[in-house]
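Onboarding guide, step 5: your first structure request.
Type a short instruction followed by the sequence, for example:

Predict the 3D structure of this protein.
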Amino acid sequence: MKRSFILLATIVTTLFLGIFIGISGLRMLGHMRSTTSRELSQDALYVAEAGVEKAVFELRSNIDWIGEVAVGDPIPGFEQVEVRLDRNDPQTAVGYYTIKLGKEPYSDAAWIIIPLRIEGRSAHPSQEAVRILDVEIRAQSPSAFFVFTLGDIHVGSGANIGSNMLGRDIYLEVSDTVPPEMQGISVDGDVVYLRNLIGDLNDPAIQISGEVYQGDPVTFVGVDISRYRNIAQNGGAYIDGDFRYQGNINRQELNAPNGVVFINGDVEIEGNVTEPMLIVAGGDIHIIGDVEYQANGSHIQLGLFSGNDIVIDETAPGIDGDLALEALVIADGGVLRAEGGKGTQGTLDFKGAISVRGAEGVRTVIDLNVFRQRNYEYDQMLFLDPQIPFMSYIADLRKWEVVGSPDVFTSEQR
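The system replies with structure tokens like these:
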């Protein structure tokens, strides 16, 4: 009897332990599967975010990047793009993203809004997680504004600005130390300030034809030095070191078949522009004389893109103190300024558009008060009919939203 009881107790204990171990194993397996699903879902989200970054990058290089795509269709060349931890090792693939046009692009004030749907998929051999992001990217050419900056702008008496301007703090400063006929400030367009507008809009000396309003924060257009160095080394002209040039500005004279000249240093330049060109400097660009378009039957445009400042040298104006400058100027690391004492030169005639990032401690990002009279004419063809080769554009994320809950599929379900 005692042996029978011991045997029964052993069987019951063994059965209980077996059930307990089985349940524990199932729980552990379920936990492992749940952990794997969460990790795959996170991978899919990371991959989708990589797709967002890629879309912003592409739009900064080409505002027409999406092409003629129907809503819901993938952007050509951006379907199932593999993302790796090590780009040289296929075994480190994390997943794949596909970029689709989410909705028709639309306009919002001066901006183009591009809705995209980005699908991220994990790269697990037996399970696949999918995450979807709906994003809106705000894009525009810097030439849509006559003046575009993230720094402060002091606009003084004698300034005639031919179109829209955008800046952080905008100061409209009427001087009472000059004759009344020279006190005027004229803006033929909108004034968009990101933080503050300082000035008496009721002052009759201040004339603004457009609207005055506070705009949303925005990223600067930037000068991608690596990109332009690569373009110049592959079909353009690459100059390693400082460069001084006086003469006709065209592809033949500068030995730049694709129209891009990159200088790994400072540039000094003056001359007649005879065809669309882009000159990019890693350092400063110095204007040492007139830079003007020479009409030859086709539309001519010049881009002067600096990694630092754009400077009008003190000796640049002619004997009469006047200077002409035609270009789209972008100063990524600093300001646009003229050297010399205030009011010591005659007239500056500028035609084009200006984008400057600004710098800490700088009072104003555009300091051209060396010239007693400053005439600014906006070249709307820079925006309406752009000809500058390999332009750069403004693009930043306006909206970011995860769509639905994460989906995980096994290899059989796929």
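Each response can be followed by summary notes, for example: The chain has a mean pLDDT of 87.
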